[in-house]
Structures are given as structure tokens and as C-alpha cells.
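Structure ticket #2291
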Amino acid sequence: MFLTTVYFASLSAALVLGYLVYKAALPKPIPGIPYNEYAAGRITGDLPEAIRYEAERSEMTGFLSQQLIKLNEPVIQLFLRPFGKPWVVVADFKEAQDVMVRRSREFDRSQFFSDIFKATLPTHHAGLRLGNEWKAHRRLVGDTMSPQFLDQVLSKRVYESINMLHRLWNEKSRLALGRPFTAKNDILNASLDTIFAATFGSSLQVTSNHVDLLSKLPSGERPENNDTEAELPVAPTSKEYDATVTVTASSEIPLKSPSPVLHHWLAMNFHPKLRMAVSRKNKMINAELEKAYKRSSSSSAHQGSLRCAVDLIMQNEVQMSKKEGRPVQWNTQVMRDELFGFVIAGYETTGTVMQWALKWISSRQTVQTKLRSELHEAFREVLNAGQDPTVEALCKTKVPYLDAVIEEVMRHTSATQIVNRVATVDTQILGIHIPKGTDVFFPNGGPSFLTPAFDIDENSRTQSSREAKAAYGVWDPSTIGDFLPERWLSLDDNGKQVFNPRAGPSMPFGAGIRSCFGRKLAEMQLRILVTLTVWRFDLQPVPELLSTYKKHELLTSAPQQCYLRLAKLH
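Resolution: structure written out below.
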């Protein structure tokens, strides 16, 4: 009898304890913010639906927009991390701008973002909170985006890389004999070649090696079906290339892990392939830093001798060390992280947007024809001379329709699909209480961007948001989802057509002090790529099976397919 009583008492206690643990593990909704009621009643929250959505579409961003539309609210909360706090999702361009541009004392970089790069770039400024440390790191690399360095140094690296990419596409077109070929890795590799040359002074020569391989192959017989893919050989890559791509791709680990930092750290230290890649990456950067330090120490070193970002960063460190009265710290974790962060951002982010740009232009023949006409008009003398625009001309000449096409590409396919912040104090968004420590996500697609905006009471906005109401236009709901470059054009006081970057909602690089650091370089790369590609080639339509707009989302939202069918013009 006694044992029976003890047994039932223990069982009851276990059941009560289990129930209490279960209740404690359930999502804790933030009062006043709409959510899926069924999700609040289970430990997994909204995660099952999110996983199913990602499995079907290979992207997560659309799930956030889907839930916003489903709940028919501009501010919602989702429970996507078991045992974690709710994520608040806000779909309103004006509010996103207000938070990022004018409310940096209330919102800062989210830990969610920092966790993605904690193992690969532990000291990079992008993952730091605003403060003296962030300022010091940003100051170290700040001049790499100066107009002078962009125009005099980086633009030439970009131009050289695009020229080599076009040599590759000439060879591919010769061998394809009118068939489409995949350009996805071509663009990514050219982007990596560009950013390596911009960062370290010389490229990885991935594209040139591919050109050498294909140039030795004879053209075959013309195929019966021109709509089949031309499958062409790929050149082997270097150890430095493999290491860079492997380390960059490892960011998928924290994105899909419930313990992002620990999981990523374990993989980088114990997974043989990743550990080897990290070692090679570190060795490569150490060697480049040493060479840059030796160049900076030579008697001939001066401003005009700067040939890449590492030279400029080293010069900044030398100047800072003199000012602070300390030895030059030419090889530190900070310098290594800032340099590799420069590479990652310039490789994957820019390469992704470049793919989307050529997909959109290839599938919009009317846009392509008009763009080519506008380019011919802008560079009429060069056209008549049978030449290509120089890099100097490309950087200085204003072509409003070119800017409009690029901006419309980025509106539809943002480099940054989601911008997120964390509330550093108890605050409000659209009159709704946001507790300190809450992660807030702002999708760059969906309502107010690519679908009609929610009807929001202006009185619910902050004073700073109301005062900035006229800073940007709004999109016509009937055409908001269309690819329409003309939406970015207007007439100035003299009746001349000009590009208007504030015509309506778009936030491809974020906004405010925490916006994408490499935006100017990315825009320059896009400008040179699009101009020279449309100038030199006719981008002909690609079969529907090879031109879907399905995405693959990791750090960026890349197209699953990027095929080109090119006819040489110049």
C-alpha cells in the first residue's frame, strides 16, 4: 500500500512537472500584436508551416509576407524559434525607413544577424552594436567606398573582370551554336574575381582559366533543337577559390540551426573540409596582409600607389597608429575579418543581383531594346567609332533609363531580402508596444513594396515618420507588382527626363547608418555589367523551362536558374 501511494505520488508529480515544463515551453505572445492562434498552442509555434514553405519554395522570405497577408495586419508576430522570443514582422516601408534612419537609439543590429557571422567574422563591424568599437572598425575600412577610391581604383578592377566575363561568353556562344547556356556560376565567379582583385590587387583568374579551356575546343555541328541547354566543360578551380566559397557557404549552418553560434563553431573546427578551408583562407589573408604591410613600409609608398582595398586599409592603420602613438598592428583579427567580410559581401550579394539583372533584361525584350537605344544615345561618339564606352565614361555619364532599370531590378530582387533590428529599449511601432530585446524583421518584398500597402492610420506613426511623409512617393497599386523601369523616371524643371531614386518604396540595401556598407561598389558593378552586356550582346529569349523565377535563399535570395542565349553585337 505504501509503495503504491509513493508510486502514484511520484507519477502525479512527474505529470505536473511535465505539464509545467510544457506550459513554460509554449510561445509567449507579445500583447497587442496579431498572431496565429494555433501556433501559440504548440511548442513548435509557426515552425512547421515555415519549414514546409521553405521545402516547397527554397526560400523563407515569402513566408513572412504570406503570413502578413493572411493575418491582414502590417505588424504581426511569429513563433519560429522554439523556447525563444517571438519575432515581430513589420510590412510598411515608411515605418522601416523611420526605424532604420531616424530611430537608431531605439533599434540596433539584431543578435540574429550577428549569430550568422559570429564564427566566420567575429569582429567584423557588421555584427557589432553601435559604439566606439563599431566606429573604429568602420573607420578602418570607410575610405574603400569613397568616390575617389571607387573611381580611380575599384572601377578599373570591375571593368577588367567584366571584359574577361564577356570573353568567356563569346567562347560559350561559339560552342553553344544558338543554344542557351548557364551563366549562374560565370557571374558568381566573375564577381569573386572582381572582389579579389579589388581587395588584394589580383584576381583568382577563375574566369580567365575557363576562357583558356573553352578557347581550345572546336565548334561542333549545329544542333537540331536550339532550345536545349548547351552543356559545356568547366575549368578546375584553385585552393584559394575553393576555400573562399566553402567558408562563405558555411553561413547556411547557423541559418538553419537552433544553436547557430555553437553549431557553426563546431563545424568550422571539426568538419575536415570546412576546417581545411578556414585554414587556407586564414593563410591567404595573412600573406596578403604581410605583402600590403611591406608595400606600405617602402619609401615609394604614397597615395597614388594604392592598388586595392588592403593597401588602403593598411594605410589607414599606419596613420591611426601614428596618431595614437603605438606600433602598427598590421595583422589583427579585426583586419582579417574586415577584409574577408569585404570579399563575402562583394562576392555573393553582388553576384546574386547581377544574375537577376540579366534574367529580367533577357525576359523583357522591350526593356532591353529601349535600354540599348538609350545607351547608344548617351555614348553616340563611341558607338560611331565602333568602340566600347570606357570605364571613366561609364562612371561619369548619366543615363536615367539605365539607373531606372537597375533600380527596378533591385526593387524586385533586393540584395538584402530582410532587414532586421532589435529593440534596445521598450518602444513602439505603429502605436504597438515592442518590448526591449525583441527582434523586428522588415521584409523588402510584399506589402508596400511589391503588393499594395496596408491602410495605416497616420496618427499611429511617430512624429519623425509623419514629418518624413513626403520624402518618398508611393506605388500605384494597379502596377506595383509589374517590372516597370519607367516608374523611376520623372521630368525636372526644364522638362528633361531624370532618374528619381525616391519615386517610391524600395530598400535593397537597407537604410540608415546600418545600411549595406558596399552599396556603392555593388551599384557600380551592376552599372558596368548591364551597360557592357547590353552594348555587346543581344540577350535573346530563353525557353520557359530554363527561365523560371524560382529562388534559392541563404544569405541572399538567388535565382535557381540563370541561362543566357547571346548574339554578339559589337
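Closing remark: The chain has a mean pLDDT of 91.
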